[in-house]
Specification:
Largest sheet: 7 strands, mixed
Number of strands: 7
Helix content: 10-25%
Low-confidence stretches: 1-6, 215-221
Mean pLDDT: 81
Radius of gyration: 19 Å
Number of helices: 6
């Protein structure tokens, strides 16, 4: 693996079009218009491979299930494997939701719930971090896989304190239903809009870029 201490340019793989990685100096974004599986260097990477086929609803979710449609776990066109290999070869960090089945599938160690970096495999490190610490509207616990020249420094560990909105869960069928539920003591907290659920908060983006560059102190202060 190349030395990361002198690296300034970063390739951001599998990112949202016109999202938080666009327009940054020293960052080359690869969105759906480019095939990040074809990335061949030379820069370290921050990778956000698609997670739908690795999560709790990898089979397509209840709606598809009722229609008799069942997708295959891990059928992401090789995106996660490609992102993982890019991190191993060029250095950097990969992000996926907590509980991603890709960790077990590719032999990565499961990170501890309490936080802290542990060895994921022969190449890199893994940890669990909550994006709520970094400005996300939801708690959004996240797993990272990082390959750097040194053990990554401490992030903000554990469950954040404060009021956060759910990403998924039960919803009210109508305004009237919501009003009756609230009258019975329910606390209504609107879910994070779908357009915002997958976007990386700027502070978390900068933390991932710092990990990939291997140069900044991204500690707990």
């Amino acid at each position: 693996m190349r030395r990361l201490d002198d690296v300034r340019n970063i390739a951001a793989l599998f990112v949202e079009t016109d999202g938080p990685y666009f327009g940054l100096p020293g960052v080359e974004p690869w969105d759906h218009r480019r095939d990040a599986r074809l990335y061949d260097g030379p820069w370290a990477v921050v990778a956000h491979p698609p997670c739908a086929r690795w999560g709790s609803f990898w089979y397509g979710g209840p709606l598809n299930h009722r229609k008799g449609i069942r997708l295959n776990m891990g059928d992401d066109g090789g995106c996660f494997e490609s992102a993982m290999k890019s991190v191993r070869v060029f250095g950097g960090v990969l992000e996926h939701p907590r509980g991603s089945r890709a960790w077990a599938h590719f032999g990565l160690a499961r990170p501890p719930l309490c936080g802290g970096w542990v060895r994921a495999d022969a190449w890199g490190w893994t940890c669990e971090v909550w994006q709520g610490w970094y400005g996300h509207l939801a708690l959004k616990p996240t797993w990272l896989y990082a390959v750097t020249n040194r053990a990554p420094l401490a992030l903000k560990w554990g469950r954040p304190r404060g009021d956060f909105r759910p990403i998924s869960g039960a919803s009210f069928r109508s305004k009237e239903h919501r009003a009756r539920a609230i009258a019975k003591g329910w606390k209504y907290v609107p879910r994070v809009p779908s357009a915002l659920r997958h976007l990386t908060p700027p502070a978390f983006r900068d933390t991932l870029l710092s990990i990939a560059r291997g140069q900044a102190d991204y500690g707990t202060d």
